[in-house]
Amino acid sequence: MGVIRKNIPGADGKMKKFISLLKTQINSYYGISAIKYKYFVEKKQRWELDLAIFGIVVGVAVFLFIYVMQLEGLFAASIALNQPQLMLAIVLFLGQIVTLIFGFFWVISVFYFSDDVKILLPLPLQPYEILLSKYTVILVNEYAVLALLLLPAIAVYGIGTGAGILYYLIALVVFLFSPVIPLSIDSIIALWLMRFTNLRKKKDFFTVLISILALMFFFVFQYFVNRNPQYTDKDAVVDFLIKNADLAKMATKSFPPSLWGAYAMSDYHSLYGFFNLLLFIAVSLIFTGFLALSAQKVYFKALMAGQEIGAKKKTVTLERSMKASGALKALILREWKLFIRVPVYAMNVLPVAIIVPFIFFISFVGNPQMGLEKAVQYTSSPTNWFWVSIVGLLVSLFLTGSTSLSSTAFSREGKMFYISKILPISPSLQLRAKLILGSLVSIFVILPSYIVGWYIFKIPLVTVAITVFLSLPGVLLINILGLLIDSARPFFDWDNPQKAMKGNVNVLFTLVLTLLSLIIILTIIFLLKTFNVSEILIAILIEILIILADLKLYSLTKDFATKLYFEKE
Fold first, then answer.
1. Residues 368, 460: contact at Cβ < 8 Å?
2. Could you tell me which of 286, 257, 281, 292 has the C-alpha nearest to residue 134?
3. pLDDT tens by residue, 298-330
């Protein structure tokens, strides 16, 4: 390789430049230097890092425990079908499809909405160098996701077949190349789509639309899966896969790279397996090469197109242009535009309105084994209004805590927060606008779940009304908690909109406080129940306590917000 590079003028310099750029991109995207300095040099708030690591370890452990049991069933079924590679093909197929569908969302965000794009453009860098460095950053993200899906499957197959060291080496190569083809397809589509979609407004629309369609695809897929009985043991999983073997084969054949990778691993000791491995690698490199060529041709043009502003075909009159708007209304509209104009923000909040109702639907309607009849018998009775309303309240609080809108209300302004500070408007009014928008969006997110729940469980309208009565102050409570946390410790130092939400620990804190609120409410209810307090009185007391908490916490939030707005840089 050294001899080859010597014969290519500037090859070493270009490679060093690219590696340097890549290191900078990874450091910037993950905030590695900032994390090292904050937690290991200054040693400030080290507990945040410990809490995050603990949460990740527990979550991964629970997931792996359940997932490995299912993989063992799939492997046993594959052996029963005399096609041991089928388990590998199915898992690899699912991993690559996940990358293909959700990768598009990451690609749009990192390629076009990162703040560092404006810094990189004037530098003496080729378009393909900038794009491939960003592509590699996304690839690292995908490896983290695929590690949870593929590595356990590789281990189950290897242990089950008594495979040798060569199998694990080839499996590692397949793992490293597994996201390349789907992510390259996403990137190529994004490049050409952005090139010929000149208005940023349309780019946002396409991003949100494609992401929602991706979610819909998974819900429909899950619905058809759940139409079959739910299996709780390995033998049942074996029986299910044997009966649906043709469907599994058809699915994997629809994306050939999954089969190539599976055969490369399962037939690692034969020439056929080696051929599939070469094919898998070669096609991955071809797609990457085509991506580099596309980047060189259209990436800068697509970025420039994103800066273009098209004329609106509206008749502008003096009366319309001079139309006044109240300060609060103007602030709410400003908050809405700051939220909706960036697809990353919308896709972190709005899908909750789709996901939860669909989970209800596919769990109960798509799967008759879930005991829907008994549930409906209970929920449709007006005498059971109390527990139905309490469950509705708890669901409303949890969904509100999951939206992450209020818990990032200040952080999402980023380095532009100074504009809010110099506005001739009081901090309390700006805070009120954030609270109103957060609450309205929360209601929008909760509403579909209410409608689906009312339809499926035949809940009486009186019970629905009581649930709404209990939930509205609760929605305010969680939004106030989010604003309190974000005003106390805002995260302004981000260079990618995604970090304002995904990389903001305030979202986690709000969710933890939300869960704590649920526990407190349930504890109070059970304590009152032990003293035989009537259900009507309990509901009234819970409502009063939530309202009092709203008032106290809002006053505290207003103090923190005022301090934040008047804080010197």
1. no
2. 292
3. 888 777 765 555 555 555 555 555 555 688 888
Residue with tokens 């160098």: 129
CA–CA separation, 269 and 459 (whole Å): 61
Query: Would you say the C-alpha torsion 423, 428, 431, 432 has a positive or negative sign?
Result: negative
Q: Do residues 473 and 545 touch, judged by C-beta distance below 8 A?
A: no
- DSSP-assigned letter for residue 108: H
Tokens of 331: 């602030």
Q: Which of 559, 568, 557, 560 is nearest to 421 (CA)?
A: 568
d(CA 399, CA 405): 11
* Cβ atoms < 10 Å from Cβ of 501: 23
> Got the DSSP string for 180-214?
HHHHHHHHHHHHHHHHT---HHHHHHHHHHHHHHH
> Tokens in use for 73?
């069933």
Query: What are the structure tokens assigned to 113, written together?
Result: 């909405």
Predicted TM-score of the model (pTM): 0.61
Q: Are 73 and 234 in contact (CB under 8 A)?
A: yes
Low-confidence ranges of the chain (pLDDT < 70): 1-13, 115, 197-254, 305-325, 343, 351, 354-355, 358-372, 495-496, 568-569
Three-state DSSP state, 19: helix
| 378 neighbors 384 (Cβ within 8 angstroms) | yes
DSSP state, residue 269: T
Cβ neighbours of 364 (radius 10 Å)? 20
What burial class does residue 531 get, using C-beta atoms within 10 Å of its C-beta: 0-12 exposed, 13-18 middle, 19+ buried? exposed
